[in-house]
Amino acid sequence: TQSTWGENRVNSVFFIFCCLSFLQTRMSVQPFYECSEFGFLRILEENWQAIKEELRALRQGDFMLWPERNLYEKSNPEGWKVFGLYSFGKKLDDNCSLCPITTSIVEQIPGMTMAGFSALAPGAHIMPHAGYAEYSDKVLRCHLGLDIPLNCVLRVGGQCRHWEEGKVLIFDDSLTHEAWNHSEQVRTVLLLDFRLPEGFKTQGSLQKGFTPQVEKLIEDISTGHLKSHE
Predict the structure, then answer these.
(1) Cα dist. 110→39, 47, 68 in Å?
(2) pLDDT in tens, 43-60
(3) Predicted structure pTM score
(4) Engineered SS bond to 149: which of 109, 130, 183, 217, CB 3.0-4.6 Å?
């Protein structure tokens, strides 16, 4: 059909773009890392089904829109929702009480500073962006695939990867990255940040710190004004 032809054409153009970007940057930048480089992350893959069961037990109202709405609202006004367990080093006790198994698992990750579920709605596109100076240049980011439909893509620097259920993707959040959900289902991952182990360094050149939206989120968390869940 015409719509199928259009979708295939978009996917083909997108694939070519990713390949060209990869060839341009592959010699100088390492956007992704292998799970084998961080043995402490194996606990996530070993327990992904238990984590997914706790995800399924949550209600839609337990999630909140990520405050930087300018990154996704053009594609879908409710395109990116999160359910935090730890946010910039602060434990969200009410949320953690709803996911005790997941909480106990992420708390075993050395240097964990951020953990929670990240849901990307059908048709959503998180636009190109990089992390925050004095934060993202001190951590690496990990995604554990939980609900992963087809046609969902993450680009970091010049490389594109697909999530897999039960598998982790580790990447450099200080590099420019973006994400797409071209499917008709929600894509959900467990998102986790951990401090850079010795011998590792980020490669982005971050100039700006937290955005006003994220500063407000951190303030609300620290003062107890954040409504963890309804």
Answers:
(1) 11, 17, 28
(2) 999 999 999 999 999 998
(3) 0.86
(4) 183
